Amino acid sequence: MISPEQKPTLQRKADELLRLHTSNEILKVVNVWDAVSAKVVADISETTALATASHSIAALFGYEDGEKIPLDLMLDMVGRIVASTSLPVSADLEAGYGDPGETIRRAIGVGVVGANLEDQMKPFDESVAAVAAAVAAAEAEGVGFVLNARTDAFRRSGGLSHDEQVTEAIRRGRAFLDEGAACVFVPASLDVPTVERLVDGIGQQRVSVIGVPGSLRPSALETLGVARISYGPWSQRVALTALADLAVSVYGDGALPDNTRALN
User: Fold this and answer.
1) Which of 22, 75, 115, 180 is most buried, most CB within 10 Å of its CB?
2) Are 109 and 6 in contact (CB under 8 A)?
3) Structural domains of the chain, count
4) Is 263 part of a structural domain of the chain?
C-alpha cells in the first residue's frame, strides 16, 4: 500500500507518462536493467521516461527469461531503478507472475507508474481478465497507471497466417483498451502495411512496438501514428556486445577505446 504522501508524486509521474504516450511525438524508451544503466540513460537530455526490461533484469541475476526470476528479486531491482531517477518509470512485469493484480499493486508500491503485461496468447477471456485485474489493482491504489498491454499474436500464434495474426492482435488490443489499458504493445518485426493496419484497427497513439535490428525508424513510426517504441533486451545486448568486443581487443594486445567515458 502506498502512503498518502507518495500519491501526489506518483500521480504527477503517471500523468506525465500518459501524456508522453498520447502525444503526437513518438515516445522513445531505451530499456534499462539496473540503477547504473538507468542513471546513464536518464542523464541524457532527450530522455523523458524509463522502462525496465524483464529479460535483461533476469539475465543480470543469471535467470532465463519467462518469469523464472523470483518476483521479489525483480521488484527489488525495479525499485532501485525508480529510486535512481526522478523520471516516470514503467516496468516490464511479463504476464504478472501468476497474479497480475497483486503484481501491479506491489509494483506501484516501489514507485512505478506504468507496466507492460503480456498475454502470452492465453485464451482470450483469460487475457482480457488479466488486464482488467491489473487496471482494477491500480485504481484501488488510487494512482493513475499507464498499462501497456502486450499481445503476443505475432510471436505465439501457432499456425495463424500473417493476416490472421494482425486480426487477432487488433481483436485483443481493442479488448484490452476497453478494460482500461492505455496502449497496446505488439512486439514483432513490422513492415509499413502491418503497422498501418494495427494503428487503423487499434487507434492512433494506441500502438506500442519494439525496435529490433532492421525495424522501421522511429520517425517513420511516428508518421504512422505509433505511440511508443522500446527496445527490450536489445539495449543490454548492445552494452554486452561492447564488453565482448573490449575483451577480444585487450586479449589481442589492444587498448581501451579513446572515447570511453566515466559514466559510473
Assistant:
1) 115
2) no
3) 1
4) no
Domain for residue 253, yes or no?
no
- Residue 158: its pLDDT value, please? 78
**Through-space distance between the first and last CA atoms of the chain, rounded to whole angstroms:** 33
Task: For residue 246, count CB atoms less than 10 angstroms from its CB and return exposed for 0-12, middle for 13-18, buried for 19 or more.
Answer: middle
pTM (2 decimals)?
0.95
Cell numbers of 144, please? Answer: 493513475
* pLDDT tens figures, 144-157: 899 999 999 999 87
pLDDT in tens, 110-130: 999 999 999 999 999 999 999
Range of the domain at 178: 7-244
Q: Which CATH number is 128's domain given? A: 3.20.20.60
DSSP 64: -
Residue 79 lies in a domain: yes
Distance, in Å, from the CA atom of 151 to the CA atom of 171, rounded to the nearest integer, reads: 10
Question: What is the helix (H) or strand (E) element at residue 105, kind and residue range?
Answer: helix 100-109
Q: Which residues are within 8 A (CB) of 177 and not within 5 positions of it... i.e. 6 or more apart?
A: 149, 184, 202, 203, 206
The three cell numbers locating residue 70: 523470483
Report the DSSP beta bridge partners of residue 205: none
Q: Is 99 left (phi over 0), alpha (psi -120 to 50) or beta?
A: beta
In a domain, 260, yes or no: no
- Cα four-point dihedral sign 236, 237, 240, 246: negative
Instruction: Write the pLDDT tens digit of every residue in 174-191.
Output: 999 999 999 999 999 999
C-alpha cell belonging to residue 38: 538507468
